[in-house]
Amino acid sequence: SKRYIHSDSALGTPQDSRLGSVRETLLVVLLASILGAMSSQSRADWHHAEAAIMGTSVSVTLWSNDAAAATQAITLVMAEMRRLDAALSTYNPASLVSKVNREAGSRMVEITPELASIIDKSLYYSRLSDGAFDISYASVGKHYDYRLRHQPDAAEREALLPAINYDLIKLDARQTHVRFANPDLQIGLGGIAKGYAVDRCITLLQELGITSASISAGGDSRVLGDKRGKPWLVGIKNPRGRSAEDVAITLPLVNVAISTSGDYERFFFDAQTQTRIHHILNPRTGTSASGIASVSIIGPLGFDTDPLSTTVFVLGVEKGLALINGLEQFDAVIIDAAGVVHYSNGLEPAGNTLASG
Q1: Interior angle at CA 329, CA 345 and CA 318, nearest 5
Q2: Cα atoms in the 13 Å half-sphere on the side-chain side of 37
Q3: CA-based nearest residue to 297, from 318, 313, 319
Q4: Residue 208 in contact with residue 66, Cβ under 8 Å?
Q5: Is residue 24 predicted with pLDDT exceeding 60?
Q6: Alpha helices in 193-293 (DSSP H)
Q7: For residues 291 and 313, is the Cβ–Cβ distance under 8 A?
Q8: Distance between CA 76 and CA 69 in Å, rounded?
Q9: How far apart are CA 48 and CA 71, in angstroms?
Q10: pLDDT tens digit string along 304-353?
Q11: Apex CA 333: angle with CA 228 and CA 140, to 5°?
């Protein structure tokens, strides 16, 4: 503004002086406007986005003092989710998992270190649960279509049951190739991929300096830090509720993952037997697991809570709680088919804040 005043006053006329005064005022207003816009862009605030990815709704909420940086972070999260969906989905014929399912029954198939780690982790939980968790469930599971209300008949299930056997999934010693020892064997990563995905995306946010965020992909969520001095409040859906907003239990969480498996996610009713046919299959029978309506597992990583929620659902209340009570850093909330709520030993029903160690 000094330059404007100096330039105009040098003209030596009252009219020019008034013009300088107007220009000075306009410049002040312009500078204030620019500073205001910059201040608005740098104002700390919550940023949120949702997208349909991995066959579910992916949601991202984060705290940032830079709107542009927040937009970039959310864009990266969604891009990572789409990358993982493209690589791991059995619904995408071009995915690596689809290639494995087509070819591993007849030969060794080269895989990425990422897929190898997911298969290896799956096999760990298969061994831990004596087969209650088994990604080869898809050998029968691929013949279910919940939208079309279709399920394999008894003879078809019986013929394919021998292919549901995690011991038949062979990773080589270097974990660069995989093959199946049964040509009918197929794998599905629906019980572990989304938990892995939320972990990957939380890591991306941490690398960008984000310290407070929540990412969810369907029934799998992970919260980073707390919610500006308060815990994140995560609701467990009422499995027999009439809407998604019908919450049975609300848990205050800090810096943990939570995964929920429920018989209400993908299902139809069999008119003949009057039973609920849902997507969580018992690997021993190839039919929908019974006795439980929903399982929620809380722990440090979604890569573990996701497969554990499926595992406990298949094991049932008693064996499922015994498993979780024997694991450090994990807790469970189980709602059985009768609507009774069961808690693991480390989880107070009153709801203390749960934080990772």
Answers
A1: 40
A2: 6
A3: 313
A4: no
A5: no
A6: 193-207
A7: no
A8: 11
A9: 9
A10: 999 999 999 999 999 999 999 999 999 999 999 999 999 999 986 644 44
A11: 115
